[in-house]
Amino acid sequence: MAEPEVEIKGTTFTISVIHLIDNDLEHIKQVLEKKMAQAPKFFATAPVIVNVSLVNESLDFPALRKAINATGFVMVGVTGTRDSAQKQLCHTANIPVLIAGRDVEPKPIEAPQDVSIGQPPKVVRGQVRSGQQVYAKNCDLVVFGSVSNGAEIIADGSIHVYGALRGRAIAGASGQSDCIICCQSLQAELVSIAGHYQLSENLQPMWQQACCIELQERQLTFAPLN
Hints:
There is one protein chain. The chain is 16% helix and 31% strand. With 226 residues, the chain is α/β, with parallel strands linked by helices. The strands form 3 sheets. The protein has a 6-stranded mixed sheet with strand order 5-7-9-11-14-15, with no helix packed on it. Strands 6-8-10-12-13 form a 5-stranded mixed sheet, with no helix packed on it. Helix 1 runs parallel beside helix 3 (61-70).
């Protein structure tokens, strides 16, 4: 009987990126511990990639990984290495070096005006249950139902929930900043547009209300739906 084969397939995951500005490991640890305390259920064992392109000083990569992992996050790789010496240090420490395009100093991303042009929205009818993840690639996401605690909905475009939004909603996942998130009752664990996010404790002014969320001047804004 032939042994089952191992398949390797490409897929898409949402992973947070930590952008370092110096090599002060104690300060990095304190910042991440504060983030973890804000939402331990959400961030616990969350994989993160560390962007080191803005760090001019030398980095102790094993110590960096140890400091980050000690906070509850899990460092899975490094990006933004400036030269072959940094890459070799990562390889020696068995830390993957991830390359997005080229390892150069990051520049503002000019996102397309509307990634959903020519693309119909992804439509989900019914409840998105705890543990489920729904991703709308290159289009908007429309949910005719509620999103449960522990569920995650992601769209490269905007998100519309015709029900209660109790899980995590991530719009503009590809970097598009003019996306919106609309829902009939805001009770989310986390909302995010183009990488800018707010946790549940910051949503209290609009809690359990119908609202529309937009990104303006790098800040999420909330307006009631009348």
